[in-house]
Amino acid sequence: MDLYLPIANLSVNALVIIGLGGVVGLLSGMFGVGGGFLTTPLLIFYGIPPTVAAASAASQVTGASVSGVFTHMARGTVDVRMGGVLVGGGVVGAGIGVLLFRLLQALGQIDTVIAILYVVLLGSIGGLMAKESIETLIAARTGRARTARKRRHHPLVAALPMRWRFYRSGLYISPLAPLLLGMMTGILTMLLGVGGGFIMVPAMIYLLGMGTQVVVGTSLFQILFVTMATTMIHAMTTKAVDLVLALLLLVGSVIGAQVGTRISMKMRPENLRVILALIVLVVAFRMALGLGWRPDEIYSVQVQ
């Protein structure tokens, strides 16, 4: 079932794209991650241009985040004030990101930069996840309980001026910390098409010192609005958003998330984390290979 993607300027098998979205949704349901950090690499492996893959993945993450935000709002697990600061930083970061995106496009280096950023981010995060998961498994088998980490914000965050109270998170810190964190996530969302949850959630816990009960909901709140702004900026500036591609991915991710949720209920959390870490490392390794492989056709001609 071939379908033409107008922005990507190529024909694809619609069922394959839905299947890729299903894989990402499956991971989302199994591991509790947005899966956006895997969407762009999978699309690139399939042959979608990296610029279109990144821009379209951001719009797919927007659609996938809506239901999660409403669920957490109903449960009261969203710190709206903290989320608002993160969204403000994210929108500013997206503006900076589009300038970087256009600059790298003009230099002809955007595809290479996207691949390198994915290798670095996925490799480092996958390595840390694997280390923590293996330590947890070893502790469980030897009967040694891991020492629980006390919740507190980083000393650098404590040194920042202008403190605000974030009642839902139980914090009294400077808004500059979440503002800068949001800016960094906005830049990554613009360049890579990720929601940023795989960076945002650990940063909110270990840097800001937020309680785990509000971290996921607040992160989704920020992701929803920042990816929405990013999609609009991409559509108006880079013209790289392919809505047909995004809709196919969204259909697959909705179906995959339902299946993944059922699977996750039957597996131990530490085993799930090990599997996720291995998947992330495999994708990072494949991206690294792509940077070194010589393509069959070194030069190509595109008709405008």
TrEMBL record:
GO terms for cellular component: plasma membrane. InterPro entries: TM_pro_TauE-like, TSUP/Inactive_protease-like. Pfam families: TauE. Its main location: membrane. The chain crosses the membrane at residues 12-38, 44-70, 82-104, 110-130, 171-199, 205-228, 240-260, 272-293. PANTHER family: MEMBRANE TRANSPORTER PROTEIN MJ0441-RELATED, MEMBRANE TRANSPORTER PROTEIN YTNM-RELATED. This is Probable membrane transporter protein. It comes from Sphingobium fontiphilum.
